[in-house]
Specification:
The chain has 4 helices and no strands. By secondary structure, the chain is mainly α.
Length: 114
C-alpha cells in the first residue's frame, strides 16, 4: 500500500510540474495579448488547470479501476476454484469495476469540452 501511494504521489507531482511548465510561456507574452485575453473574458493561463483536472480525472479513475479489478479478479478466481459454477456470476462485478475508468474518461472529456 505504501508503494502504491508513493507511485501515485510521483505521478501527481510529474503532472503538476508539466502543467506549470506549460503556463510559463503565457507569462512571457506581451501586455497587448494579455489585455486582449482579458477583454474576451478568458484568463491568460486558465487553460492549464483544465488540462490538469482532466489528467487527474482519468489518472485517478484508471488507478482505482485497476485496483478494483485486481481485487475482484483474485476473489473471483478463489471462488471459482472452490465452485466452478460461480464463473458467470463473477464477470459482471469485474465489468462494473472497469466502468470506473470509463466514468473518469467521460468526466475528463466534459472538462475539456466545456
Amino acid at each position: 500500500m505504501k508503494n502504491r501511494l508513493m507511485v501515485l504521489g510521483v505521478l501527481l507531482l510529474a503532472l503538476g510540474m508539466s502543467a506549470f511548465a506549460q503556463e510559463a510561456p503565457a507569462r512571457e507574452r506581451g501586455a497587448s495579448q494579455e489585455q486582449d485575453a482579458e477583454a474576451s473574458g478568458k484568463s491568460p493561463g486558465g487553460g492549464v488547470w483544465k488540462y490538469f483536472a482532466a489528467a487527474l480525472a482519468v489518472g485517478i479513475s484508471c488507478i482505482a479501476g485497476g485496483i478494483a479489478v485486481g481485487q475482484i479478479g483474485s476473489a473471483a478466481m478463489g471462488a471459482m476454484s472452490e465452485n466452478p459454477e460461480l464463473s458467470g456470476k463473477a464477470l459482471p462485478y469485474a465489468g462494473l469495476a472497469e466502468g470506473i475508468c470509463l466514468w473518469g474518461f467521460l468526466v475528463a472529456l466534459l472538462i475539456l469540452i466545456f
